[in-house]
Write a structure and sequence with these properties.
- With 205 residues, the protein is of the alpha/beta class.
- It has 6 helices and 8 strands; from the N terminus they run H-E-E-H-E-H-E-H-E-H-E-E-E-H.
- It starts with a helix and ends in a 6-residue tail after the last helix.
Length: 205
């Protein structure tokens, strides 16, 4: 186990008592977790989603979460997030640095977590009251690396002292035509399909 993975494991055990008491998590579909690589794509409704997903995965299954850059500007929190393997993305613009970092992790056989809608969605709308729309980034990244997409669903409502069940769907590849680079419209269509698969893991679907 590398130094970064040992630190991740240490931080997991450090944070686990709090979450296990107030927001315990359980994973459904553990058999769907790839041993290496995999771009995990999840719905997003609260700032705690990345941590709760990591808690559900367990201490030895490190996942690098792409998180908004504002988190890394908070003293203390930003330091811990970086040490835990999280990496920042500047929302609202094409952040090539975040894309390259995600590709590096995937090419190294690491697991990456993204929220393709790019912002928190509550009651079917974003913070501006608009319906959610998946961004092209996740589809573009995985089409370049050849990794599997792993749909991940986390319930919007996290009740205190109640289990939050994180659901892992069947991994699948992004298929592109040989020698043909997808267009922006193609990437958006792929991203919309990713989110359909994510929400299909929710209750009543």
């Amino acid at each position: 186990m590398s130094g970064s993975h040992r630190l991740y494991t240490f931080l997991w055990y450090l944070v686990w008592p709090f979450f296990n008491l107030f927001h315990p998590t359980r994973l459904i579909g553990r058999e769907n977790l790839p041993e290496k690589g995999g771009l995990f794509c999840a719905n997003h409704s609260s700032d705690s989603d990345p941590i709760m997903i990591c808690m559900a995965m367990g201490p030895r299954y490190q996942i690098h979460a792409m998180a908004k850059s504002e988190i890394f500007k908070v003293p203390g929190l930003g330091f811990i997030a970086r040490k835990a393997g999280f990496f920042s993305v500047d929302r609202g613009k094409a952040d090539s640095g975040a894309v390259k970092q995600a590709i590096r992790f995937l090419n190294d056989g690491e697991h990456v977590l993204m929220f393709p809608e790019g912002t928190r969605i509550k009651n079917g709308k974003d913070r501006h009251g608009n319906p959610p729309r998946a961004k092209a980034g996740a589809a573009m990244i995985v089409s370049r690396t050849g990794d599997l997409v792993v749909p991940l669903y986390i319930p919007p409502k996290k009740r205190w002292f109640r289990f939050t069940y994180v659901v892992v769907g069947d991994p699948y590849p992004i298929i592109t035509e040989d020698g043909c680079r997808p267009s922006s419209r193609d990437y958006l269509s792929m991203a919309e399909d990713i989110m359909k698969r994510v929400y299909a893991l929710g209750p009543g679907q």
